[in-house]
Amino acid sequence: MSHPSVPRIGRTVAGLGTAAVCSAGLLAAPAPASASPGARHTTRPYPNLATTPPMGWNNWSYYACRINEKVVLDNARALVRTGLARRGYDTVTVDDCWMSRRRGPRDELVPDPVKFPHGMAYVGQQLHRMGLRFGIYTDVGTLTCEKYPGSLGHFRQDAQLFARWKVDYVKADGCNVPVPRGRGKEETYRDLYGQLSSALRDAGRPITFSVSAPAYFQFDGDRVWHRVIGWSSELGNLWRGGRDVAGRKSSPATKWASILYNFRYNANLAELQRPGRWNDPDFLLVGDSDLTRQEMRSQMSLWAMMAAPLISSTDVGKLSGAAREILGNERVIAVDQDPLGVQGRIVQQGRDSTVLAKPLANGDWAIALFNAGDAARTLSITAGAAGLPEAGSYRLRDLVTGRGLRSDGEIVARQVPAHGTVLYRVTPG
Ligand code: GAL
Predict the structure, then answer these.
(1) Which domain holds residue 399?
(2) Domain containing 161 — which CATH number?
(3) Which of 136, 317, 321, 395 could form a disulfide with 427 if both were Cys (CB 3.0 to 4.6 A apart)?
(4) Atom of ligand 1 lying closest to residue 173 CA
(5) Among 336, 366, 385, which residue terminates a domain?
(6) Of 96, 173, 280, 364, catalytic
(7) 233 — alpha (psi -120 to 50), left (phi > 0) or beta?
(8) CB-based burial label for 129 (10 Å; 0-12, 13-18, 19+)
(9) Which of 308, 336, 364 marks a domain boundary?
(10) 96 CA to middle of ligand 1, Å?
(11) Is residue 353 located within the same domain as residue 324?
(12) Does the C-beta of 413 come closer than 6 Å to ligand 1?
């Protein structure tokens, strides 16, 4: 990243070695909840508009810039038709590249007339008719990552335009942010995201705000990164912490590696999440994505354990039966959306395996046993090591198969397939 203009992030997938190093650093450096170098900023926390992690669809990792009205509305219809909308996938977000290359005569953002011939208000209207919510992308810099007009210098105007279009969710990226001479990068980002945050809150419409700032600080040292997450969690409802998951054209191995990478860094950010303020490790690739069934299940289960936003990026109309079942698994969705709003924690870390535990509102716990290795293996943990309350026995329900088991304290997942996860809901007593 070079000054004065900070370029885009997240196009490549780092090796897993890097991920492991990064995670180790994270564990060693717990973060302050909300510090900022710009002490002059008085933070009014953004309204609590996402009491559970947002769910929905975004075109980016599947379609990138190849979007238009038809792609967006066809996917929206497919969400409704497949029943996924009813299960919670209700926010349809149009990512980068929806705009014309230039602002209009009044400096307003103008939708690309070929891609969106009826304009964006129309898209919103259609989505609302389907019972869905309308999300849109912008950038706090001079240009978006794909070099369309950014919102810098136009925060109030753009927020009001989005409100007029009846937008319900804004994702604000952080490409092409010029850092003025004499100011720091963090201070600049904090200031720009702060301006957009207050413009959105004043726009007269509840707009869920997704902040991308932390993704631009993932490699600036954990202290800085965590601090940026701290203020992002006050300026918005969710934030992208780091790299993009791999796009559609990447190899299957690269896609899986990117999921693993994002899981590893995000699992270590549990301390920084709190109910209503969500770490976002990026899209669910579950779908027409070259992942194995086990890999799709793992991503869904691990994202649910982390109370991550469940934002699918795929062609919903082409979902296989298996992918639809995985995305739509209500027992797993309930873990993600649990009203206690706690991100699950790592309670056991092996070389190629991770066990996570997450307390749930009704006194149950979710336990995920994840085999990241390339061969099947049996994984287990004791209820005590997982942090569960002591009990004479425990009832376990496998949330994928629905099968019930009893245990006297050993939580075992036999022969978990390569890249697979067993997710239990555990009821003590
Ligand atoms: C990236 C962002 C992606 C997508 C893309 C659009 O920075 O992480 O999710 O929004 O920009 O150009």
Answers:
(1) 345-428
(2) 3.20.20.70
(3) 395
(4) 7
(5) 336
(6) 173
(7) alpha
(8) exposed
(9) 336
(10) 7
(11) no
(12) no
